[in-house]
Structures are given as C-alpha cells and as structure tokens.
Design brief:
3 helices, alpha+beta, 3-stranded antiparallel beta sheet, globular
C-alpha cells in the first residue's frame, strides 16, 4: 500500500483523466478525499474498490435528495 498525494498521482495510478476521476469520486464512491486542499488516496483502498467494481458488489450511483 502507498499513499497517493495530489490528483496527478491518483490519475496516473488509475490511468484516467482528472475530469473522469472527479466523476468517479462524486458518483461511484471512489476512495479519494480532498484534505486541507490536497487530494489524497491509498493504493490499497483503490485496488479493493476496483475489485468491487469488477465483481459487481458496489452501491449504485449516489442520489441527491431534492
């Protein structure tokens, strides 16, 4: 496991663009958070999240209450 600091590191690890990553964070409960203005994540959490996505054991998209 390794800590990823900054959106560039997260994007590089995932092989996705920043806009795609922001959508995944918002809608798919991707394990990254902005802490004191800096995006952080963990490779172990990301790998576990990926496995849940692959085997279908994931919650549906987040719903906004109106």
């Amino acid at each position: 496991m390794a800590i990823l600091v900054g959106m560039k590191d997260i994007c590089r690890y995932m092989g996705r663009s920043e806009s795609t990553m922001l959508i995944m964070i918002r809608d798919l409960d991707f394990p990254a958070r902005k802490l004191v203005g800096v995006w952080e994540s963990d490779t172990g959490l990301i790998d576990a999240w990926r496995l849940r996505q692959i085997d279908g054991k994931r919650p549906g998209p987040k719903r906004v209450k109106k």
